[in-house]
Amino acid sequence: MISAYMMVLAFTVLLVLGTPIAFAMSLAAVFAITLFDPAPLVLLPQLFFTSTNNFSLLAIPLFIFAGALMAKGGITDLLVNFSRAVLGHFKGGLAQANILSNTCMAAVSGSATADVAAVGSIMIPAMTRSGYPPTFAVSVTSCAAMLATIIPPSVVAIIYATITGVSVGQLFLAGAVPGLLSAAGMMLLTRMYAVRFNMPSDEKANWTERLRLFILAVPALMMPVIIVGGILGGIFTATEAGAVACAYALVYTIYKGKARPRALYETVLEAAVITGAALIVVGGCALFSWELVRSGATEAVTDAIMTFSDNPHVVAALIIGFLLLLGTVMEPVPALILSGPLIVTAVSTFGLDPLSFGVACLMALILGAVTPPVGILAMVACRIARIPYSSTFRPIMPFVLLWLGLIVLILYVPIISNFLPSFIK
């Protein structure tokens, strides 16, 4: 156990010194293994490579590339325009259109950060010009972007499935219904807020205009149908779905006349950089997690939990609470990989449902992206709105409480997550 304590201490010191998290984990693991828990060092590069040499992880660059290609084709503008035409005429309709746009973008990009930047750059200025408080526009945009963590093709879900051994396809399907339910809950909350504070509305679009915008948005709306439908129908796996999404996005970009060599090069480079950064974190966390397991730290944590309670519902609540705290100081991917051994042990020891518990874990981790001190999604949205991050703390709280309620609902009513995956078991 001494090696685990020293590794965590070294990791904390490196983070305080500003070391990137992937390198902090790798260096802390090497430090602890070398000085306190000797093992053949030749195992470490092998472990690093093995953790990233996973067929399921191939889906990450494929979906990132597909989402970036669709964005190059101007899909964000089409989705926003369609959402405004459908919902803009309601009181607070522009805020609801924001949530609908983020929901659709989540099913294309798989990245919450990409969604808040793409949708926020359009919707936040539009909402501000229409008379919405900038803090409210930021709160709606950043919280709606969290949907990309559970709606397929979520990049974080791919990493969770790789760590825990759950089928990526089944986890994609498990996140679809909770994602739509969460979007509906946010829209209802926004509606109540708009009525109470007399939020503005757009002019009502006629049905001809709505139909025109719907036809233009069909290519974007079809991508999640192809991904989820293909997995649900057993036509292809989640990784193969990524390849299909790439081909579909490339055809769409060529059709729109945006497939210039320079644009394609930039898109490939963007996907490569994001994937490389993610895989370095995966490799570093693999070393860190391996030493945690090897030193007996995970068993000690499990024993400590069992002395407190052996009730699966209580254990699940404790782990979700831990992930909520971890998510406030660490981004979802490293936090997920760091807590991976604990999650795997909890699922196997206490018989937790891997799908509903997995979706709840993802939701718990992403909540820290809109709350202090990290709040990366809220910070990106604040930069777009040019307002201080601290000004969003109060208006964002209703969405945070709603999200917490949804976590509890999904955790203890597993049929919500298991409904679609049950068709391919």
TrEMBL record:
Please list the GO terms describing molecular function: transmembrane transporter activity
InterPro entries cross-referenced by the UniProt entry: DctM (IPR010656), TRAP_DctM (IPR004681)
For this record, the Gene Ontology CC terms, alphabetical, are:
plasma membrane
Q: Which UniProt keywords apply?
A: Cell inner membrane, Cell membrane, Membrane, Transmembrane, Transmembrane helix, Transport
Query: Where does the record say this protein resides?
Result: Cell inner membrane
The TRAP C4-dicarboxylate transport system permease DctM subunit domain sits at 9-414
Please give, as recorded in its UniProt entry, the membrane topology of this protein.
Multi-pass membrane protein
Q: Which residues cross the membrane?
A: 56-75, 136-163, 169-190, 211-232, 267-290, 310-326, 357-384, 396-416
Xref: Pfam families: DctM
The record's similarity note reads:
Belongs to the TRAP transporter large permease family.
Assembly with partners or alone: The complex comprises the extracytoplasmic solute receptor protein and the two transmembrane proteins.
Cross-referenced NCBIfam families:
dctM
What function is annotated for this protein?
A: Part of the tripartite ATP-independent periplasmic (TRAP) transport system.
The protein, known as: TRAP transporter large permease protein
The species this protein belongs to is: Pollutimonas thiosulfatoxidans
